[in-house]
Amino acid sequence: MDYKVCFIQGDWLAPAVWEKFERHFKACGYACCVLSLPAQGEQGWYRVLHGKDARSSPLKCLVDFYAEQIAAFPAPPVLIGHALGGLVVQLLLDRGLGVAGIAIAPRPPQRVFPGILSLLQILSTRAEQQQGMRFLRMTPAQFSRLMGYPASRQTTGPLYEQFVGTVPKSLMTTVALGVGSRLLFNHERGPLLLICGGDDHVVASSVVLANYLYQRRSLAPTDFISLPGYGHLLITQPGWEHVADRIIEWLQRQLGRF
Question: Where does 4-255 sit in CATH, by number?
């Protein structure tokens, strides 16, 4: 059976950040798509978070948005998400959506403390008013120090211009507080792989490990990979091919069971 791979947009970064992974997976025979917001930037966030049920938590609105798209597929896809997208992958698997999931440097679910670095990032980022909402905008210096590490400022500068956007403050605050991210860790779901960078300054490897220790309560296959020398941008920093190949190897083992 052929499985479709869906890459899920995370926080701060534009969908174009998946271009390298998408080409690599297609070269390995996978059909791919990137699940992104209905429009670029602030307008897209506004349409998702102020859609059908504005009373829901921002995170639930986002997960509902992706769930509707995935439910329309003819067969459950493989879900791959980075940062906030990695948390969304876990929440979608918990709903029974997706044949397997890969969460890369994922924001943690409820019951897993996000870590001081993550909280400081949200609290120290400048907020601005757009579309009747408050959005957080990371500066180039913040991006280089947190998300771009361990690369140099000269290397991360072009990445900032190409990929970094704004993210709703209400969404990031609820994620940091664990609102709307409760998981049933012993719930039946598809296989899950959690990956972290050993030098991640946004989602520390210890946070991803704590997430894994909860997730492995499930009877479904659950694995954890820590990659020394990698920062938060595992999907685009030098050596990203190794990350993609590790995921493909894991997928081939898991999908062979079905």
Answer: 3.40.50.1820
